[in-house]
Every structure is written in structure tokens, then in C-alpha cells.
Write a structure and sequence with these properties.
The chain is an alpha+beta fold. It has one domain. It has four helices and ten strands, in the order H-E-E-H-H-E-E-E-E-E-E-E-H-E. A hairpin with a 2-residue loop joins strand 4 and strand 5. The longest helix has 15 residues. It is globular.
């Protein structure tokens, strides 16, 4: 089952179907001592059904627990598969899309039967706050554009900030959650199989999918 998420994610790209995987997300924005934005740390907890299916046969020592080592190959394939989907992370600053690097660190943990993926996306170059408006033009959107995976941020500590040395950051982040789908649209989407194309008339737009993070830092 090591390749399961790879198969699911790739199927999602082709099917563009209603969600078949649900995850609860948290994000930590990382700044350096000069308040430059340098990385996003993601924590994604997958739903019970996916977690149970994906982890079948991975308890190599039969102790009833899944260690990071036993989950290492699955986490590697998860992260490699997500590259084709830009890690569900879309960073914009004004008219530009500042690039980030592939995850510098990642791992999976099993907690209470749920798989949780941890990974960090470092910026290729630190983003410096404008001396007048700080990061007013910076947005970080987190969502699956295919709607195969439903990304919903946690109710508590959904987005936090920190400095790279672990000390508190003076920068703050706010989360704008996506618009809720209406009942009729949700019902129509729920009736579409994973191999079927979602009709354009009922396909959710980015405004109905994107979790948008905005950043505020002290200006000089």
C-alpha cells in the first residue's frame, strides 16, 4: 500500500471529482529574525477511512503501532506525489508567484488511528516585508483544485507564526475559510464517481475551495 496516496492523487487529477479524501490542516508560517518569510510548515491529518486503508500491512514488527520508520516510505511517496499538485499550496505576492523548494523535511505519524503528514516548504528566497505595507500583498492559498481532496483547516490553532529559532514572531496570520457549498451542489457532487468528470456547471470555483492565509508584520 506504499503507493496508495500516489494512486489516489493521480486519479484525482484525471477525475476532478467530488472529494474522496478529507484532511484537517494546520499551517505554521516561519520567519527569520528580520521578519522575512522563509517557510510554510504543514500538518495534515487524514480521515479515518483513508488512514486505515493506506496503513494496511505497514506494521512490520507487529507491535500494533506504526512508527515513523514504518511510515517512511509512504510519507516519501505522498510528498513526491503532491509535487504535481504544487503541494496544494499557492503563494502569491502582488502579480508574482514566489517559488518555494521541495519539502526539506517530512514524515508521517499515526495518532489514534489517523495518519498525520508533516512537511515544510522553504521559500527559494526569503520574502522581505515592504517598509510601508509589510506583507499586505502576500496571500497563501491551500486547497486541492481538483476537489478530490477536501482540505479543511482545524478550528483551533489553524494558522500560527514562529521564528526559525523557535522564538515567537511579531508577525501574525489570519485565515479566510472557503465559502460553503450549498446543499444542492454538494448532493450533485456526492453522486459523481471517481472516474467521472465533474460537469462545469456544478464544479466548485477557487472561491469555494481556497483557504486563504494573509500575513501582517510590523513595518519600519
Amino acid at each position: 500500500m506504499f503507493f496508495l496516496l500516489s494512486v489516489i492523487v493521480l486519479a484525482g487529477r484525471e477525475a476532478s471529482a467530488h472529494p474522496h479524501v478529507w484532511l484537517q490542516a494546520r499551517a505554521e508560517l516561519v520567519f527569520d529574525a528580520q521578519n522575512n518569510f522563509i517557510a510554510v510548515r504543514h500538518v495534515w491529518q487524514f480521515d479515518e477511512g483513508f488512514s486505515a486503508y493506506a496503513s494496511q500491512g505497514l506494521d512490520a514488527n507487529g507491535d500494533g503501532e506504526l512508527s515513523r520508520e514504518e511510515l517512511a516510505e509512504l510519507s516519501k511517496i505522498n510528498v513526491e506525489s503532491l509535487k504535481d499538485f504544487e503541494y496544494f499550496t499557492f503563494i502569491e505576492r502582488g502579480p508574482e508567484d514566489p517559488p518555494y523548494q521541495a519539502p526539506s523535511e517530512y514524515w508521517l505519524e499515526s495518532r489514534g488511528g489517523l495518519l498525520t503528514l508533516f512537511f515544510t516548504l522553504p521559500m527559494e528566497k526569503p520574502l522581505t516585508p515592504d517598509k510601508d505595507k509589510g506583507f499586505a500583498d502576500l496571500t497563501i492559498e491551500v486547497f486541492d483544485a481538483t476537489f478530490f481532496v477536501d482540505v479543511a483547516f482545524a478550528e483551533d490553532e489553524a494558522v500560527t507564526t514562529t521564528r526559525s529559532d523557535g522564538s515567537p514572531s511579531p508577525c501574525t496570520a489570519t485565515l479566510e475559510r472557503p465559502k460553503a457549498l450549498d446543499a444542492a451542489q454538494s448532493q450533485l457532487l456526492a453522486e459523481i464517481g471517481p472516474e467521472d468528470q465533474v460537469p462545469e456547471a456544478i464544479a466548485p470555483g477557487e472561491g469555494e475551495l481556497a483557504n486563504t492565509i494573509r500575513v501582517s508584520c510590523p513595518t519600519s
